[in-house]
Write a structure and sequence with these properties.
Order of helices and strands: HHHHHHHHHHHHHHHHHH
Distance between the termini: 26 Å
Structural class: mainly alpha
Largest sheet: none
Shape: globular
Strand content: under 5%
Length: 423
Amino acid sequence: MTKSQNNLLKYFEFIFSLFSLIHISQAIIPLFLTGGANEGDGVNVTSLDLSINAKISVLIYLVTFVLLAMRWKRSWVTFSNNIFLWILIGVVCFSYFWSINPDQTLRFSIYALGTTGFGLYLATRYTLSEQMQLLTWTYGLLLILSILFAIGIPKYGIMGGVHEGALRGVFTHKNQFGAFMAPGGVIFLLNALGGGKYSWLYWGLLVLNCGAMVMSQSTTALGTFALMLILCLIYRIFRWRYEVMISAILAVTILGFISLILVAGYVGSDSIFSSLGKDATLSGRTFIWQYVWDQIQLRPWLGYGMTAFWNGFDGPSGYVQLAMKIAVIYSHNGFLDIWLSIGIVGLGIFIVSFISTTVQSLALLRISNTPVGFWPLLFLTYILLSNLTEGTISNMNSSFWAIYAAISYSLVIAKQDKYAITE
C-alpha cells in the first residue's frame, strides 16, 4: 500500500470512527425521527418508524468487521485474550434460545455484538491517547451542536412537556444529554491538565460543558460529574509509593465514612434529597426496583433474554407498569436490567469482567505519568455510578458500551506490553 493510500485510509478511519461514535450515542438522527417529541406530550415514540437508525447501525457494524479483518491477527489475539468479555457476549447471543421475545433478543444481540466489535476496532486501531483525542472531537462536536440547537431550533434543542425549559441539545431527552456529557467533562479536564498550546480551548469546553449540564437540569448527571471531578484528585493517590498510598486510602475511606455518618445523622437524608430536587424514593426508582426484583426472582439464573423483558403491558413488564401506574421502559438501574436480560449468570460474568478491567486500569495508572493514565479508571467509575440510577450499558448498544469495550481491550493490549503504552 502506497503512502497516499495509507493516508487516505487513515482519514477514512478517523471520519468513520467519529461518525460511528456520534451515531451510537443516539444523537441527532433519533431527535429528528421523533420530531422533537417530549415526555408527557402524548406522543408514543415506540410507534414511530426509527428503522433508518437501525440500518445505519448495521452498516457501521459491517464496515467495522471489514476493518477488523484487515488487521485480523492483532484483532484475534486481543479478542481471545479478553476471555470474560467474549464469554459475556456469548451468553447474550445464546439468550435467544430462552428468550420470551426471541425476535427482539436476536436484534439486540446483533447490536451488542456489533458495538463490542466496534470497541475492539477502536482498541486495535488507536492507542489510549488517540482514543482520548477521538473522544474529545466527539464530545466537543456534540456539545457545540447541542448549544446551537438550543439557540437556533429550540423546538429540538430545548425540552417541552413535563421537563419544559431543560436543555437536551441533540438528544431526545435531558437525562440522555446529561449522561452523555458527564464523561465528556472529564475528557476536557484531562486534556486541559495535559497542557499544550490548546489547553485554553479544553478549559473553555469544560466551562461550557458544565454550564450545559446545569441547563439540562439532570441532577443525577450533575452529581456523578461532580463526584468524578473530586475523584480526579483522589485517584492521584494510586501513583504514590505503596506504603504512603495504603495509608492515604485508609485515611480517605475513614473520612468518607465519618462524613456519611455526620451528614445522615445531623442533616437528615430527606433534607439532602430535597435540596437536590429529589425524594427518598429517588423519584420513584426504589419502587421500580422493588417490582423489578419481584420479576427477577421468577427467572433469576438466565433472565428473560437480552432486552426481552420490557414490552409495556405485554408480558412480565406489565406487572411493573400496573404497579407503578405510569409507563416504565427500563429499571433505572443498569445492573438490574442486565440481570433481567441474562440472569445472575450474565451479570456475574460482567462483574468479573468489570473487576478485571478495573484492576488493569489501576496497574496502568500506577505506571503512567500522564493524564491519559487516569481515563480508564475514571470512565469505569462513571459506568459504576451512572448505572446505579440509570442504565447506560444495559442493552450493550451505546457509546458507553463501545468505550467500555475499547478500554477493556486496550488494557489487555497494555498488559501484554507490560503497560508500556500510556500514550
